[in-house]
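Bumping with the actual sequence this time:
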Amino acid sequence: MLAPVLALAIGFGAVWTNALGAADRLDVLLMRVSSALHLTPDLPGQETVIVTPMPTASPTPMPTAVPTDPPSGAPDTPTPEPTPVREPVDVALVHDHAAVFASQATDKWCAVAGTQMVLAVLGLGDTSVAFQEEIAGRIGEWDSWEDSHNGGWGPAAVQRALEAYGARGYEVRAYASYTDALRDSAIAISRYEKPVVMFPWWGAHTWVMTGYRADADPTVFPDARIRGAYILDPWYPRFSSIWGQSDGPGNFENLAELERNWPVHQGPPGYESIGPGWTRPEGAYPDRDGRFLVVIPTR
């Protein structure tokens, strides 16, 4: 019994780095054992908010023309608000990404390091290995069955950890559309000036989004298109046989690169059973499967 219990330490950051080789098949087996044992607790208040698809945006209408010379005796017509200027935006919360970057201390601690970097960006923590170990050691306060069937870190554990260290107002959200998840993340960054936690690699990994580029301000123009995002990847400087060489702190990931890492289609050859969005081998997550997960600021 001891061996399966110890196996629960796999955690949320167990990424597939050897093209589903022997080590990964063992990981999947251990996940299924821990899933069957159902040893993690059920904690209240860890709901995933399912966001309905955003309707297709129409082009921003032009303002109605106002007569320059109203008829004599007619009431004055209010002066219309100035038309917003539609122009590209480049939003970055962090100007020195290296200063807030923390590489995951083990190949399992991506969610821990992601949480740590959000806290560092917000001035609520540092990037030391000691602080990462402290966060990792508190997982027993935040893990739950519905959040992570294989024990350890899931999106709700990240949200709870952020709350515990003073980063309040974060929420776990699941989107049917990748573009809606990216757009809402960009809007939240602009409105609240806080980073967003993303879960690429079919939900097996953690990224921190600290900014974006778009063809217009998404908080003003409903049809603004997000062109890419600034990312802190705790896997750096490691290499993955599936995803390739990880990018350095604050790298700008264009849409093609975001879609490659946050898959929006079925898996590549040899992975046909893997769907888009969240697809975890340890069991079903009804509120998450096939959706795109973020931990996003709401205030």
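The tokens above came from a reply further down the thread. The beta strands are 49-51, 89-92, 170-175, 196-198, 207-214, 226-232, 239-240, 244-245, 251-254, 292-297.
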